[in-house]
Model the fold of this input.
Amino acid sequence: MRTDHAAAQPLAGQPPAHTETSLQALHAQCIAAARWIASQMEKRRSRLALLEMTDEQLKDIGLSRGEAYSEFRRRSWD
Done:
């Protein structure tokens, strides 16, 4: 009987340990991607809200209409 071969085989009904680690890593990557997407959506909503503000509201927060438009036109990853 070869003990090295027996040790390399997972027990019946149990996935190999590396599969569980891979699944955990994939899960972590999915969570990170979802958080990044949520962050990008929040930036987009904020930038759209700037465009909907009146000139008086923009003045209250120290922005001009042109600055609000420039912020809206920025790339999402900026």
Notes: The chain has four helices and no strands. The chain has a mean pLDDT of 85.
